[in-house]
Amino acid sequence: MSLFHPRNRHRGRYDFERLYAVCPELKSFTRLNPSGRYTIDFADPRAVKLLNLAILKSDYGVVYWDIPENYLCPPIPGRADYIHALADLLAHSHGTIPTGSAVRVLDIGVGANCIYPLLGQAEYGWSFVGTDIDKKALACAQTIIDRNQLSAEIRLRHQPHPHAIFEHVVQPTDQFALSLCNPPFFHSAEQAQQQNQRKWKGLGQKNTQRNFGGQSNELWCDGGEVAFISRMIEQSQAYKTHITWFSSLVSREAILPVLRKQLQRVCAQHVHVIEMAQGQKKSRLIAWQF
């Protein structure tokens, strides 16, 4: 049963005939599952990448999308849920969901895939500034932006310091309605690989590669997600006049008490934890305001 956000376009099953129409190459990667429905081999990075391309073309009007080999290939339905949850968050203070380019969003770690700006711009017309420490990722994201003629709506900034979140990329005149982030969840490459192996073992399959890809800075950092988000919380104090709502995805529910305590220490005035679920997978985001 789908538990996606009510506005999520992916609450039903994939319409492969419609996806084939915009991406014929996808057809060679689909097969019938035991229940007689078409699906793809989600263990195959090529299939996952083509599925993303087809979804972006058919549902969001993205005419070009590509990422380098071994870069993070995000699951679009879950990413869309984050965008819709943030839209609801803004609606609480505006009375209705604010739309249009005047709503500026800061994407911390935009990545080569540029997925959040593409979805947020398509769904709500928001404008984005995406930041990243990886120049190759930014170059790929810029190609996606240029090929889709979105240079006025999505801009990119290089973060030169790997431990800085907002410094160097938030300019003195910047005003953002919110910031979002998909943080590196693991504390090492080994932990990321172990998690990947556990996932496929649970599905009764053996897979030594990550179907979703990912560079080191996309997947892990010293201390894992709790360290990264804690650093974001600490640094957010200095940018409370530039960003109305700060937010981040949180993979492990167990770290929420630690994050809440830190938010108390920095005197955040409002804190929201928004639960999200896609089938059996559960995730959440934490948002705070000063």
UniProtKB/TrEMBL annotation:
Localization in the cell: Cytoplasm
Record InterPro entries: METTL16/RlmF (IPR010286), rRNA_lsu_MeTfrase_F (IPR016909), SAM-dependent_MTases_sf (IPR029063)
Keyword line: Cytoplasm, Methyltransferase, rRNA processing, S-adenosyl-L-methionine, Transferase
Pfam families named among the record's database cross-references: Methyltransf_10 (PF05971)
Protein family membership: Belongs to the methyltransferase superfamily. METTL16/RlmF family.
Functional description taken from the UniProt entry: Specifically methylates the adenine in position 1618 of 23S rRNA.
Matches recorded under PANTHER family: RNA N6-ADENOSINE-METHYLTRANSFERASE METTL16, SAM-DEPENDENT METHYLTRANSFERASE
Protein name (Swiss-Prot/TrEMBL): Ribosomal RNA large subunit methyltransferase F
Organism the protein comes from: Paenalcaligenes hermetiae
Record lineage: Bacteria, Pseudomonadati, Pseudomonadota, Betaproteobacteria, Burkholderiales
GN (gene name): rlmF
